[in-house]
User: Which sequence fits this backbone?
């Protein structure tokens, strides 16, 4: 602690303070001690007593900058009306416990920090071993450095830090950066207490943040962290979040490699063991998860009996990516099946082939080796084109239900920005959040971004093409299923269409298809009167319009207290036709004449 030449005497004084701290009933003063305290009999150690211990007392030892007070070994109370000499000197409670051989964390520190959970592995996976060994080397170096961990997920980063700290013989505590006092004086006081604790007991500190990214900390939290980074002498490990490629000159940055598929599969098999009839191959093919997430999900899916329910396991995997997609995407909850989809056989068969490719992606790309031939174009992407209401969204819901995936609808008109680079940023945010797997991305209103590519006349045209190319690039590499929907296929450049694997046409319904749509649009519990489905099919409406008419007719019938029959259907149809810009009298006259 750098006491200098006063070390022997200060240690002697510390022993006396320890003695009197444990025997508070004893008067520490000799008979002539009243000269130091104006004859006030004080039953505690004071400045005067400390000065009397030494033949040549050094006031510097008791200065705020001296080791005793800098390291908070002693505490001095200012006693009103008695002056400095009679100020009470107390040995810090943590130091007293240390001298008595009791290991306990300082009370103030304990309100900020908590122990880090032990690592969930005996040894890191092969992909993480270089990062773990480098962290271990830095923690055991003669001059410990500030280390920032990037990549992986939070649980994985914490476990790697815990593994390295244990191998280095260090305890590891965790501090949330947002909890640090923002005021410089208070932050420095915390820093001194931490440094003292690290000397008494070998420790390292893991600094995390609720925002998951250190570079996104609020300004006040940044100030508190800065004090620690600038002045601490002890090992600090920063949970930097996902790698962003930025440099950090004041610290060593360790990038944690992404866990490859075969190691994810091995970990699934290890954590599940024989507790569930779960296809680890399917989990690995669908979800791209870090080891920490796999361990957490397996624990969440467990039951009191120790078994793992496959449905709970799958749902927990899906839930990992939901929180990240909320800003730009709307989650749809499909409750439909193939029978709800009225399409020509060719188009319906194409949709089934899309689902089959998603299901068998791992077999073809990984087991059979097609993925090793080229990394380009491995994403399964589709364009759905057809008039509004012809079933594009319904088809996306059917695919999501068939695959047991989540479905997110992204309105491209809301993603496109007039600011350069902002559109790509929004697209990146969507795909990055969805990369954990099990998600169908349905990009609606694709016309907002796509158009027939022509000669680039200005910078706006050039950046528009960059945005389109970036979207297609992400769709080509996305491990899930991505779908573009448009009402105007002819407006899309053929060069862009060639980069999509499937193009599915949603034609206007034929009479037979329209009749089938009318037949299935009413719930079984609805009170249905006499309906002439053949005449209703002649109206020439899409499935979306037919559903609108059925819903509005149901409200008319409920209000009138009748069944849903032809009169209320025709009344609702007239409203829908007007909305579409058609003459309802002509259309309704045509069906009455049949």
Assistant:
């Amino acid at each position: 602690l750098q006491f200098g030449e006063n070390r022997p005497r200060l240690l002697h004084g510390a022993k006396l303070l320890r003695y009197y701290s444990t025997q508070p009933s004893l008067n520490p003063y000799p008979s002539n001690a009243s000269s130091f305290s104006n004859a006030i009999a004080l039953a505690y150690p004071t400045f005067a007593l400390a000065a009397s211990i030494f033949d040549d007392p050094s006031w510097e030892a008791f200065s705020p900058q001296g080791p005793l007070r800098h390291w908070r070994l002693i505490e001095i109370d200012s006693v009103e009306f008695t002056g400095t000499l009679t100020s009470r000197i107390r040995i810090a409670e943590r130091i007293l416990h240390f001298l008595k051989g009791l290991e306990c964390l300082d009370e103030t520190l304990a309100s900020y920090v908590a122990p880090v959970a032990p690592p969930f592995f005996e040894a890191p996976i092969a992909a993480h071993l270089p990062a773990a060994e480098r962290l271990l080397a830095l923690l055991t170096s003669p001059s410990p450095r500030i280390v920032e961990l990037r990549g992986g997920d939070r649980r994985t980063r914490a476990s790697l830090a815990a593994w390295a700290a244990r191998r280095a013989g260090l305890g590891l505590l965790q501090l949330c950066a947002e909890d640090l006092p923002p005021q410089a004086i208070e932050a420095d006081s915390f820093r001194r207490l931490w440094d003292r604790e690290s000397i008494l007991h070998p420790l390292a500190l893991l600094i995390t943040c609720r925002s998951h990214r250190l570079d996104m900390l609020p300004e006040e939290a940044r100030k508190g962290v800065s004090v620690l980074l600038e002045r601490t002498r002890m090992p600090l490990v920063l949970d930097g979040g996902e790698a962003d490629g930025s440099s950090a000159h004041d610290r060593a940055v360790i990038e944690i490699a992404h866990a490859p598929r075969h190691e994810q599969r091995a970990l699934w098999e290890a954590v599940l063991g024989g507790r569930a009839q779960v296809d680890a191959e399917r989990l690995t093919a669908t979800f791209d998860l870090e080891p920490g997430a796999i361990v957490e999900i397996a624990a969440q899916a467990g039951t009191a009996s120790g078994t793992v329910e496959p449905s709970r396991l799958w749902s927990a995997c899906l839930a990992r990516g939901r929180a990240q997609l909320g800003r730009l995407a709307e989650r749809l909850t499909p409750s439909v099946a193939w029978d709800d989809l009225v399409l020509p056989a060719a188009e319906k068969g194409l949709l089934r082939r899309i689902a089959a490719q998603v299901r068998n992606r791992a077999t073809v790309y990984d087991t059979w080796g097609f993925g090793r031939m080229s990394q380009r174009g491995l994403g399964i992407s589709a364009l759905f084109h057809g008039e509004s209401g012809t079933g594009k969204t319904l088809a996306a819901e059917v695919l999501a239900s068939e695959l047991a995936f989540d479905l997110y609808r992204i309105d491209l008109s809301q993603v496109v920005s007039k600011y350069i680079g902002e559109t790509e940023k929004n697209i990146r945010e969507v795909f990055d959040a969805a990369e954990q797997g099990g998600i169908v991305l349905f990009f609606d209103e694709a016309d907002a971004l796509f158009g027939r590519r022509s000669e680039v006349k200005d910078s706006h045209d050039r950046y528009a093409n960059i945005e389109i190319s970036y979207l297609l690039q992400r769709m080509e590499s996305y491990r899930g299923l991505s779908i573009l929907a448009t009402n105007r296929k002819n407006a899309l450049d053929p060069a862009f269409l060639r980069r999509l694997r499937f193009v599915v046409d949603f034609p206007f319904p034929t009479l037979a298809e329209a009749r089938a749509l009318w037949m299935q649009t009413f719930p079984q519990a609805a009170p249905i009167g006499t309906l002439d489905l053949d005449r209703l099919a002649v109206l020439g409406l899409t499935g979306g319009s037919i559903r609108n008419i059925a819903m509005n007719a149901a409200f008319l019938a409920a209000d009138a207290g009748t069944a849903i029959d032809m009169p209320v259907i025709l009344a609702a149809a007239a409203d829908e036709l007007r909305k579409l810009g058609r003459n309802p009298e002509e259309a309704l006259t045509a069906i009455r004449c049949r």
